[in-house]
Amino acid sequence: MSLAVVFSRARHGLDAPLVTVEVHISNGLPAFQLVGLPETSVKESRDRVRSAMVNSGFAFPDRKITVNLAPADLPKEGGRFDLPIALGIIVASGQLAEKSLNGYEFCGELALSGEIRTIVGEIPVAIACRDAGREVVLPMLNAQQAQQVPKVAVHGAEHLLQVHSFLLAQQPLPAIPALPQREQQHLPDLADVKGQAHAKRVLEICAAGEHNLLMLGPAGTGKSMLAQRLPGIMPPLTEQEALATAAIYSIAGLKRNLTDWQQRPFRSPHHTSSAVALVGGGSVPRPGEISLSHHGILFLDELPEFPRKVLDVLREPLETGVVHISRAARQAEFPAQFQLVAALNPSPTGHHQDGRATPEQVMRYLNRLSGPFIDRIELQIEVPLLPKGMLSQHTQEESSASVRQRVLAARQLQLVRQGKANARLTGSEIADFCPLQQADARFLEDTIHRFKLSARTYHKIIKVARSIADLQQQTQISRAHLMEALSYRALERLLSYLKN
């Protein structure tokens, strides 16, 4: 048999499109030609495959070898095609029957010794193979991660010879290491934060409805401590959400900790991060921090220190939950349904009333944040300095476990009522699931016009009020809920105060 066909998978955003590896061996001068839009890393597979086959004891054909990676218009990158190319040559040269490849797909990079090295993006590959009804052979470490994908047959291999023996039905592939037992991680506890009852209340609302949060206050008041304790009071990821998050980490070359599979991600990039680092990009589009925070929290500390143009690229993903990356030769779409939690000082000196900064300096500092960006943050609170004597008091603060029970109850109400968190409601869904009494609707609209707030803010206040009502297990949004939601606009009040 001089022609062999092997199935593999490429990497294109979060997708793993099918690649048919066609190997033809013909008479002629010895040559190894690779076609099908391969990038440099794929072209180099010719030398890796030749050495791996020879060092594994296979005969490398001394003839003309043509390898086509179809479809031809799909860019191919990485070393993932080494294993299917080697198997195609082995089959085309008569060292393995072609029928033994039926029902399998292969991905893996070959070392010169024939060992199989890990690849990037095993989760999307396993999902695509499951949907295609085929089994997949992956490097052993990738196979362990891919076991998280339900209803797919995953095989792990460490050497080319193991795959050959498996396809000959001589011996099974090595057993994939068992998944570690999932356990509840010991996250930072809310009880560690002294005082700040107001901020804890808002943190609970934030967790209940998946709202964005901005904390304004002097240095050392506990803003970062509060943000780090948000994952501990949030509901765990569902299996579907955990798999989507793992897929993003997979294509980014990162591994999810299998022991805390359902723990929501918490990302905290430094303020020197670029726009590409936050939203993703590159010649081969890769996910950024907002996608790595999918179904989790993106914490931006010292918010005004981020360049304004970097923060403004977050505006669209905050609304849509996805980010589109377009390059000359590549386009990709990554999910980015994250909660933004931000912290900042009220002035460049740390406090706007300490006398060391003029109102003009404070305004110049806060104007690093654009109005449309601030408008997308539902909860804006001030975290003040603790009163004298609070730090030395030995008071029992409420634990994260206690707060989490209320959050879980509120989230369950939302899932039963509308199938999603309150922050994800669209305009038409707000009318259906967040109805207001006529007098309350007029009150809210009058308030919005009085303070010159946007229509977006109008809808966000209603969604926050809906979360407050859910925490109290109340079906109807009341005037009290609306007034509490309106009180959480600290940054807008500060800017209005400074302007006047």
Tell me what the structure shows.
The chain is α/β, with parallel strands linked by helices. Helix content is 38%, strand content 16%. It has helices at residues 40-43, 45-55, 82-92, 122-132, 140-146, 160-167, 197-209, 223-228, 239-251, 275-279, 289-292, 308-312, 315-320, 359-366, 371-375, 400-418, 427-433, 438-450, 455-471, 479-487, 490-499, and strands at residues 3-9, 18-26, 31-35, 64-70, 104-106, 109-110, 116-117, 135-139, 154-157, 213-216, 266-267, 280-281, 286-287, 297-300, 322-326, 331-335, 339-344, 379-382. Helix 7 (197-209) runs parallel beside helix 16 and helix 7 (197-209) crosses helix 19. The protein is elongated. It starts with a strand and ends with a helix. Keywords: ATP-binding, Nucleotide-binding.
**Rg over C-alpha atoms, rounded to the nearest angstrom:** 28 Å
How many strands? 18
Q: What's the story with the biggest beta sheet? A: 5 strands, parallel
Please indicate the percent range of residues in DSSP E strands (runs of 2 or more): 15-25%
Structural class by SSE content: alpha/beta
Shape: elongated
What is the number of helical segments per DSSP (H or I, 4+ residues)?
21
Strand order of the largest sheet: 11-14-17-10-18
Distance between the termini: 84 Å
* Fraction of residues in helix: 25-40%
Regions with pLDDT < 50 over 5+ consecutive residues?
none
Rounded average pLDDT = 90
